[in-house]
Amino acid sequence: MSEAAPHARTTELLARALEASPGETITIGEFLDPLGERAFGFLVLILAIPNFIPVPIGVGGVMGVLVIYVGAQMLLGFEHPWLLRAIRRHGMKRARVERFVTRLTPLLRWLEHVCRPRLQALTRQPAHRISGFLLVLVGVALALPIPFTNYVFGVLLVVYAVALIERDGAALVIAWLASVAAAIALLTLSGAAIDAVHKLF
To answer: 0.85 cut: is pTM over it?
Structure first.
């Protein structure tokens, strides 16, 4: 099933995904396929969530690698996320998916109110590659063992996710600029840290 309406809102797409799979079990592939290119946004949103939850050290590294994986596919021009067959066929209980969608709906409704489809060319190929490249950089930065940066990159990932899901090119430009600023700040801090170490020894 593909996107029938170019301006369909996120909640509408989720409803379609559930309607397309009436069984008691829904595979990840069945859930993501109706979302088209917007599936990238949902994956980024899912990867952003752990950055706001107190979790063991090292999770940022795992999330960073997964962000790189998603960003690399966008950079290479994929129109839809490619997942391993075992992951695509992984079944989820319909009731659990419906609960997840129900809990997420208020947030999505608010985002739909704030964001709107604009400058949509920036949310599709070939501009999609720019987002992919910058997401790879964000993933690399997230994977580095730098304290207290998970929240910053988590917020950045949320902006990317919302922009991609709602096809808001203006929000995407903000995410691009923030990514460049974060990269410059990270390089500056890294250089200062290296100089400090050299002075000590």
So the answer is: no
User: 93 - beta bridge partners?
Assistant: 25
Question: 136-170 pLDDT, tens per residue?
Answer: 999 988 887 776 677 788 888 888 988 898 889 99
- Give the SS3 label for residue 69: helix
Closest CA to 51 of 139, 146, 155, 134: 155
Give the separation between CA 126 and CA 14, rounded to whole angstroms. 26
Based on its alpha-carbon atoms, the radius of gyration of the chain, rounded to whole angstroms, reads 18
What does the DSSP 8-state code read for residue 53?
S
Task: Tally DSSP H helices, then E strands, for the chain.
Answer: 9, 2
State pLDDT tens for residues 72-114: 999 998 888 888 777 777 777 778 778 877 877 887 788 778 8
Q: In angstroms, what CA-CA distances link 105 with 12, 68, 149?
A: 10, 27, 28
Identity (one letter) of the amino acid at 19? E
Burial class (CB in 10 A: 0-12, 13-18, 19+), 15: middle
